[in-house]
Specification:
The chain has about 375 residues and is an alpha/beta fold. Helices cover about 25% and strands about 20% of the residues. It contains eleven helices and ten strands. An eight-stranded mixed beta sheet has the order 4-5-6-7-8-3-10-9. A two-stranded antiparallel ribbon has the order 1-2.
Length: about 375
């Protein structure tokens, strides 16, 4: 049987289309043949064990499925590699700084004479440098909260508010001042400082690390009571961005307390000597200057807490020999120190703290006689 090509004798006469048969337009090129689903075995293959004349070739969809699977695997590998390199990138954000232990200094200021006293607290304040101070938290003014390079206005304000809250809880709360629980102060510090804080109250020591009075202001409740709960306050807050993950706030405030001696009637005794009554009824002023340095990372801002880096306290009138690690034990109206300090120090004036013990400047006391 001949193929569709021209016969050996030439094209027959009368053939339609000028010698072209009807299958001339169908071209079975090599790509068409290779793509056929059925393929004829060769003569050698048919002689062997094969019983069929043709074999089925794999379908196109199986080839595409295999290619798609390979593509998916490659994409997964590339994605996994990108994640791994991202985690190992040397340009990732640095880890948060571990909070440092609070470094603290408490300097007693010894009076040069008897401590002035009066039965009128308002007279004491009126004749002292605290005459124009504001009452309580009203004296802790927040500066404008302006955004920094890496922190928003609200984050800056959050740091300032937390610092103010710490000052209020640690220096103005009557319960804390009277030797009560420091729990509310503790809640405002970084949890990694809890161990140092707790040891400062369980085993206070004047070692620059573990004085309860380095964290807050409190008086010995066995001998000292508030004559007026309205503490006078004045000072400043300053805030700076130290790096892209950290804000730092510095506070510098003077707190002035009106104090009196605990009367025997405060502890339940009904009978009291008249002379002792008169002495204990007189109030005196006690001044505490505190400089605190706070650090805030982004977690601290979110959790309304701070890392307290340094605390510098000047307080008087105090005796230089009085222990200050657990409580402050002020010299009260009419009392005087047995020994003075090395120099006159004014807690109302700015400048560095006096180490160990200082002498309270006369200008820092109310201008009243000791018998006022």
């Amino acid at each position: 049987m001949g193929g569709p090509g021209d016969p050996p004798a030439g094209t027959p006469e009368g053939a339609a289309g000028g010698g072209e048969d009807e299958y001339r337009s169908v071209v079975f090129d090599e790509s068409f043949v290779r793509a056929a689903r059925l393929q004829e075995f060769s003569a050698q293959e048919r002689i062997s064990d094969h019983t069929r004349a043709v074999r089925r070739r794999p379908g196109l969809h199986r080839t595409l499925s295999r290619q798609l699977l390979i593509l998916v695997v490659l994409i997964a590998v590339a994605f996994g590699t990108a994640i791994y390199m991202g985690l190992r990138s040397p340009y990732q954000s640095p880890a948060a700084k571990r909070p440092e232990p609070l470094r603290m200094t408490v300097t007693p200021l010894s009076p040069t004479g008897r401590v002035p006293g009066s039965k009128s607290v308002s007279d004491l304040y009126a004749h002292s440098p605290a005459a124009e101070f504001r009452v309580g938290a009203g004296g802790i003014n927040l500066p404008p909260a302006r955004r920094t390079s890496h922190f928003s206005d609200s984050q800056v304000m959050g740091a300032l508010v937390t610092a103010k809250d710490y000052l209020v809880e640690s220096a103005l709360d009557p319960d804390v001042l009277g030797g009560g629980s420091p729990r509310d102060v503790r809640l405002l510090i970084d949890p990694q400082q809890y161990a140092q804080f707790d040891r400062s109250f369980n085993r206070p020591a004047a070692d620059g690390r573990h004085a309860a009075t380095g964290w807050l202001v409190r008086f010995d409740p066995a001998r000292t009571a508030l004559a007026d709960r309205r503490v006078r306050t004045e000072g400043t807050l300053r805030i700076v961005e130290t790096d892209k993950n950290t804000l730092e706030v510095t506070s510098d405030h003077t707190f002035v307390y009106a104090l009196r001696a605990v009367q025997r009637g405060d502890s339940g005794d009904a009978r009291r000597a008249k002379g002792a009554d008169d002495a204990r009824a007189r109030a005196s002023l006690f001044t505490v200057r505190r400089e605190l340095h706070f650090r805030f990372d982004r977690d601290d801002l979110r959790m309304h807490r701070a890392e307290v880096l340094t605390s510098v306290t000047q307080a008087g009138p105090l005796a230089c020999a009085a222990g200050t690690a657990d409580h402050l034990r002020p010299l009260l109206a009419g009392e005087r120190a047995r020994t003075g300090g090395p120099a006159g120090t004014d807690p109302y004036a700015t400048g560095g703290a006096t180490p160990l013990c200082g002498s309270l400047a006369a200008s820092a006391q109310p201008s009243l006689s000791a018998s006022g």
